[in-house]
Amino acid sequence: MKIGFIGLGNMGAPMALNLIKAGHELYVFDVVQKNIDSVLQHSNQKAIASTSLKALAQSKLDLIVTMLPAAQHVRSVYFGSEGILENVAPNTLLIDSSTIDPKTAREVSRAASSKGNAMLDAPVSGGTGGAMAGTLTFMVGGEESVFNANKSFFQHMGKNIFYCGASGNGQVAKVSNNMLLGISMIATAEAMALGVELGMDPKILANIINTSSGRCWSSDTYNPYPGVLENAPASRGYSGGFGADLMLKDLGLAVEAAKDVKQPVMLGGLANQIYQTFSKMGHGHLDFSAVIQLFKK
Amino acid sequence: MKIGFIGLGNMGAPMALNLIKAGHELYVFDVVQKNIDSVLQHSNQKAIASTSLKALAQSKLDLIVTMLPAAQHVRSVYFGSEGILENVAPNTLLIDSSTIDPKTAREVSRAASSKGNAMLDAPVSGGTGGAMAGTLTFMVGGEESVFNANKSFFQHMGKNIFYCGASGNGQVAKVSNNMLLGISMIATAEAMALGVELGMDPKILANIINTSSGRCWSSDTYNPYPGVLENAPASRGYSGGFGADLMLKDLGLAVEAAKDVKQPVMLGGLANQIYQTFSKMGHGHLDFSAVIQLFKK
Amino acid sequence: MKIGFIGLGNMGAPMALNLIKAGHELYVFDVVQKNIDSVLQHSNQKAIASTSLKALAQSKLDLIVTMLPAAQHVRSVYFGSEGILENVAPNTLLIDSSTIDPKTAREVSRAASSKGNAMLDAPVSGGTGGAMAGTLTFMVGGEESVFNANKSFFQHMGKNIFYCGASGNGQVAKVSNNMLLGISMIATAEAMALGVELGMDPKILANIINTSSGRCWSSDTYNPYPGVLENAPASRGYSGGFGADLMLKDLGLAVEAAKDVKQPVMLGGLANQIYQTFSKMGHGHLDFSAVIQLFKK
Amino acid sequence: MKIGFIGLGNMGAPMALNLIKAGHELYVFDVVQKNIDSVLQHSNQKAIASTSLKALAQSKLDLIVTMLPAAQHVRSVYFGSEGILENVAPNTLLIDSSTIDPKTAREVSRAASSKGNAMLDAPVSGGTGGAMAGTLTFMVGGEESVFNANKSFFQHMGKNIFYCGASGNGQVAKVSNNMLLGISMIATAEAMALGVELGMDPKILANIINTSSGRCWSSDTYNPYPGVLENAPASRGYSGGFGADLMLKDLGLAVEAAKDVKQPVMLGGLANQIYQTFSKMGHGHLDFSAVIQLFKK
Questions:
Q1: Model confidence, pTM
Q2: Within 10 A of D196 (CB to CB), how many other CB atoms are there?
């Protein structure tokens, strides 16, 4: 297929390269020139650099993928006279893999629809590791028939592809899951720190929790206590992984989305502030499991 | 073996009956006569009723199990001139399966030790269902050699038997696990309520979470959203299960234990107050997953 | 002076009427016709109804006051081809008394400035009672010389007129004060409910707090416990006063403003969720001191 | 009067000295000999050192004051064969000025009553400064006639003497007030930090809050932002004042008392954990207003 790809950052670049590897013809664009250069180089010049967003949008593509940092970038890429919606041919499928609030996702989708373009919101999880390995999880919202017709496309970049329902629901699934994750990580940190402070060995405690009702991904796969899991960020100084500032962003989206629908999220709201406190201390670049440092010396 | 069993409530009675089924000779006592009568009846009069705590303690037993509601009852059963420690023969093993704070557990254990009695703290999880089926989880603290010598004994009442380390660590494991559980349940409730309010189908949302990083026991085994899991309390009006007031008790123990060792537990502290709020509204008898009712109409 | 007034709701209408009483010539507009009619009637037809926002903006006024529900309304009134900034004459002073986030206030002010119009953000507190009595508090941000030149103007509508510093700072003062107020009210509710539940008379407790270090406006002027202060909403079924949903809106602004500058607000975040919980239960129309109902039967 | 005084620490010593200055005959005791020596020296040897608690109790006194760190010390001083209740003459008035939980206060009072001794719980606020100046606030629980007969006695040590109702209510008033204070201080810290981060001058912000609805003792008398109030601990590096660890103790009492009566205290519970977090970072010795350091760089 002839594909446009906009947003070649840490996540977008490996996703684009996996599409090229799968045999697709890729037109790429980014506001940062060196991000484009890097994709050209890593693709052995197979990627085709567009000179502008508008030029890319006018390239008669089968579909366009966008992978952008935040809602404001999504708005500026899709809307306006130089944006995708004004310049793209009808019937070009639009896929936004940015993580943004469901309200904006639905607004862009409606606008696309009114121009005759189907759109899917398809945020991912799995981090840069998953993006490189092509094992991302995609949470997809939009028309079910459109999703079914394109499910195999996502498989060039990811492993678990979930259909979440109508437009915006990909973002809803992501924001709900990540709010739960963000809380669970702090909860695991508190439980581990408490148990150890009360005299238990952290590995023994984790083993018991992991076969009991406290079991969660944060305890059994990504335990925040150093030394419990050899391959977790906690055992390598909280480097790599999913940054605390990214979790802060996702919890911000969750709290904002909750506000839009007048939904209370007590632990979600507090967890958001806890990561903000941790970030303010200067630790936002560490893996989010480092939040345990607030609870132990 | 010749065993004493003190505390024949909802949990203790089926545990005692399982020991009788396993062929042990059981001396039983409870301050409530009808609890004794019930065990006599259900054991076809095989259980032997002691006339007092003191009489039971003096019955030359191999071991004594206590299963009591709270630390104050444990103190009054073990201490004082009519209590176990003053009246039991040396070398009788003492096992306390009550869920209490680690500090009291350690204090009783030290007192037992000074009288020449080994003691294990062995709180359980699994509820009355697990007690009846003999599939409880035991978290055991005390001397490792004593634990090893008696591991098979616990298997008459339970399935997963964990050694947690020195005296009191059984309680530490329980309190740490249950604090994490209590938080995770509220977090799952918030995430499910948020996702549904934002437009997702609860079953689809649960499926995605359960294969993603938000995965936890509260979401995949005990989901609080009605209709998601057929066999969860949420799908039968939150009857049965683990009462919100019991979770409130366990979170109270966690917060108190944290205070003793000057350990902050921010989400633990808030979760405690959330269950207290829910209980104050008159819902403490419902399964603890009913806490989701604070977050949805 | 020749004044334009846009937004004639519960707060705006009495403010406009006070300006007319003070002898000003008022051009008024609202998107709801009956709000205009009501001001015409209550002013004995002295107010002059503009037929549109654009017509009002083009009326060669000395200054324009806007009093609108939220940032989105402020944007749509000031921006766009039919909006104030495109149509107003240079040197017309613009005063926005809406309560909105500081970021939007600053953005509108910058846009006004680039068109040659000075602008003050001037949110109020004091409620509809204060608006009618002309005793509002104004918190004003913008050029100090512009503030000084117009301070007397505010005195036609209010009593305490505070200069808060550069543009947007009026909103900053309001959001900071109201976040503190929203938290203090819940804190007072918890303290009063706790003391009474522990056996104290609520009036005696309030008297002690009010002469001690727990003293605050929420305890000494607006006590949430029924019967403590005869004239507080708590003593008349929480009717009248400042609605819980308005406090929820202000805490939402505070949390959002905090997020913009990466400032943690732990109690602010939780207080926001507590009012949201209370509102979800269907009580958002009650005075915000009714939040005590979450903490007492 | 002939008075016994037990507990001669930072608070007790100056209280005892003020009683001597007022002309009373003082029998003093402390488990730390140098505390006794210090009072002897500062009283020019007017104080009379008792050789033991029991000896003091048997000295045929008019009344005994106790001023101890925590409930466990109160129990050990009043109970047991060497304690006050076993050794004191009937009709000796007992006054406990320790800050402890209301439940223990009531238990000790009941025991005293059954021995024929009236008892008042009379915790103080005002710190060591107030103790030295004789300007403490006393919150007194017990029989009203006993309080009235002894009100003037308290005035030798304090300025504001409040009658709070039945036994234990002195502690209830203190715990309720201090919970509100502990929350208000964090709330003020968050509001000040937020306003400054958003661009306001801290003094201007404080001035506005102090004449608005956010007004509280923490903002107008003890503002946590450095430089706002010349005489507040914030303006001298948070030295002196009321230590964060003392506030932590009081919030611990509040949360525990709330648990006893099944009263939810959401902000109280979180505030408790916030001071615990601050203390864990090693700052418990600073004035409690230093908690603002969690919220600003």
A1: 0.96
A2: 18
